[in-house]
Amino acid sequence: MDRQLARAIVNKLGSTGTPPEFGIEHFTVGLEPYLKVLEDEYLDGILKYNLSSFKLITGNYGGGKTHFLYTVRNLAFKHNYCVAYVSLNPTECPFDKLELVYKGIAANLIAPRPADAPTAVWDKGIESVVRKWHDDQRKLHDRTDSLRKYLETLPTTESTSFSNAARGAFASLLAEDGEGFNDVIQWLKGEDVSKEVRAQHRISERIDKATAFRVFRSLIQWVHAIGYTGLVLLFDEAERGMSISSSRDKRRALDNLRQLVDECGNSRLPGAMVFYAVPDENLLLEGSGGVYEALKQRLRTTFNETNPVGVRINLEELGIEPAEFLKRLGARLAELFESAYEVKLAEAKRDGIVRALADLAVSAFAFDVGYRRLFVVSALDAFHQLRAAPALEFGRKDAEKLLRITTQRLEQTDKEQVEKEEF
User: 153: domain range?
Assistant: First the structure.
């Protein structure tokens, strides 16, 4: 593989243990059965009949949820879906405030990208998607009046304001009116715009808690109407807890989630698939009252190869023993490392490092660091040591020491990140 790509992946994984947004397929292990079912049954299956679906992803903190979501994103691109990966958090994007969730989606919306350009800088955001929509249509229509007629025949979304804003943005690009485009695109991003802009483009709504769900559905309808298969939404509760700060906010967030699950059963979300990743499903389901019971009923079924209609995908149950999983992952990491540094590690020593770390990492105690993440960072550190000293002897005590040091470093990094977010 490309040396620079391999080095970028190794650098990201070795520093934090978290996956980069690119090259994810080069170190994916154990997800193949899940991914094949998702592709066959959904992305290349029922979603193309304008249906929609919801899946709940569970796994420990550092247990591969973000990696899984990135892999799904790449599969979605392959089948011509727009994708938005949204990291939920208590300050900027809590799920109890759908108007902020919409802003997160609009800011992270990506049109399909070719698989053969993994290192390209991706333009994100609804502004980028509108520009691509305009550019693609200009290639199909050689006359301005033909483009205007195309705009007029475009299906109207549930929110007329959304349709008018999208058409207004397209028309501004067509007229080469950069200032007008920037004005109307702010509304599509979820920002406030002036009365004059709203009047000019016949936008009667603000995007707030009363209209957010309707605008959210309209975004999905618009993406489908402009030629994409649909929209795949990847919500990642990336914090150790939930993106909700109080019990009242949590009930509101869970009610929003329940509504979203229900919406995925009707035709108002054509070609949409929603993935919601949490570190612990009990954060959603522990509690009493109607909203908890309603969610439990909707999320109780388990997704697997024999039950593709199930809702919950548990990344801790891949059908591979944890130590064996880490050994397979270690082999992929070694290939990456060798490509990155154009070196051939001594096979026996390399495999010995992987075995020693894999066997110990599974049982290593780390309060907030998943054993997979701990293994990844430690293994790459040990590969660097072996590259520098090919005669390196790496035994059990060396593995224990490295895992202990890595745990302390990752916990300190996480602590600093939390303090930065809080203050």
Answer: 127-200
